Fold these 3 entries.
Entry 1:
Amino acid sequence: MKMSQATQGFLFTLRADGYSLATIDLYNYVLATLAGFLNDPEVQAIQAGDLTRYFAYLRTEYIPNRKNGSNAPLSGSTLQNHWKGIRTFFKWASDELSLRQRPDAKLKLPPNNPKIIQPLGEEDVKALLGAAEYTRTAATNGRKPFKMQSRTGFRDSALILVLLDTGIRAGEAGRLNVGDVDLEGGEIFISPFGSYQRKTKSRVLPIGKATRKALWRYLTNRPETDKDDPLFLSESGRRLEHDAIRHLLVGLGEKAGVKKCHPHRLRHTFAIEFLRNGGDVFTLQMLLGHSSLEMVQTYAKLAKIDAKNIHRKASPADKWRL
């Protein structure tokens, strides 16, 4: 079976298994790039050397076609995404196409030098909220410069505070419905994506007074809502999803003079401030919905907190001197 044909069956399986659309699109891109490089071979004919050549090509010859026009070499995390897509595909192909031997069996995970985590400061967040509430300063002949309240100010402020106060991902914020918010109890319910909770873990997260107030103000200024309506809406009345949230925050960052403003910086800020203010790594892991402590320990290092010491303090055996 040709690789392009097998890819369609593979993507169908991912949809049936509840993978996110973003992951499906990513794996489709990865496999299409690989099939193009190998001239769409029979899956059974692909050898380990073909995959080695492919990764050498990605590192040295491949020219990315990015929306921002950049043709910089692929990052370590992007190469790892290619590796994950290829590994997942051949795992599927091994079962569905009865491959005698997986060509990816000894394919090593490309190294990655992660970007430096840069949380936002208090002044950054205040600047973002100011940019969300009001339009840019306007000046006309014979009048003093002035600002007007933004048409989407209530929504944008509520979105910023939800992301900052809970540390949820942009995709999770985009999937929130009105009924997921309990203003009286001060909680937000995060539902899992798909049936296997691969990335989003089902959890109930507390929200503070400022976030509750912002959500109340936003919801009371919206037309009457049903519990199944999207919480965050675009100006055209559609659900505000991951990419739209990212573009919104980038724009607000430019307006506020906050560089590199994106949803994950608010997630990083929540995590680090949580630890700096006395939170523990295990609670943070639950709040963020991580499967392991690996990323949480990175936050702990940045917050100058020793995860091992926290573990010792939390251990009943040590605390009770058993």
Note: The first strand starts at residue 181 and ends at 182.
Entry 2:
Amino acid sequence: MNLIRPWLSVGNFDDARDRTLLVASGVGAILALLEPVDHEGIEMLYLPVQDGARLNGAVLRRGVEFILRHKAQGRGVMAACAFGTSRSVTFAVAALKEVEELGLDEALSSVVERHPLARPGERLWRSLREYYDV
């Protein structure tokens, strides 16, 4: 798991299944993008997002709103996909863009700074650019 901000982490599916890691890291909510995970006391939103596919704007909005709601409530959120490098990073970039009013490239650079393997897939990146009209 990679801590991007005190309120935002990016992780893989193994991280999402590791309740001890989540609790120790202050994660109170999981945006699960591969498969649902269930932990007592940790809220989860499952959005089945295919890696390498175009991201629907309504799905992006739903995931980002989930992250922002939990941030506003003082909970740490982890976005988790299979490997923690593409789908989860896409949602982390969008959340940083909205919270910190960063450009997409700047938000991605900020994620990569803390998670060097972060690489949103081409179609996911294009979907972000279209959604934010940049």
Note: The chain has a mean pLDDT of 97.
Entry 3:
Amino acid sequence: MPTQNEQAQVRAAIEDWALALSAKDAPRVISHYGKTIAQFTLAPPLITDEGAEELRVWFDSWRGQIRYELRDLSITAANDVAFGHGLARLTGTKTDGEKADLWFRLTLGFRKISDTWKIVHTHESVPFYMDGSYRAAIDLKP
């Protein structure tokens, strides 16, 4: 039977992971991952298993801090499997001066490994306009 303590542990892991993203701290982000992870990120390719070096390269494409905000986070935990889903907002300025402000959907899958909740699956997505343009709907706000 899942306990509130397990849900709190998963929530704490998600919050620390998001803080590590904001701080552009690749080792800390990666420390939340299991040995294997399936990542369905906003950027191509369709699926990736990028590690710390790829994350550092992405962090280097931003000026200063990245703001990573979570909203409406829902957690479900049972035994050694858990997931969290909600909305995420990414804001900041790229090195070329482009400003980003994007809300997207986020789902994280966890396994309890050696009594620690580790992310083994990430899924980020934005809806797209079904008006024939197939443009990503990056202007949506909650």
Note: The beta strands are 33-40, 62-78, 81-94, 99-113, 116-125.
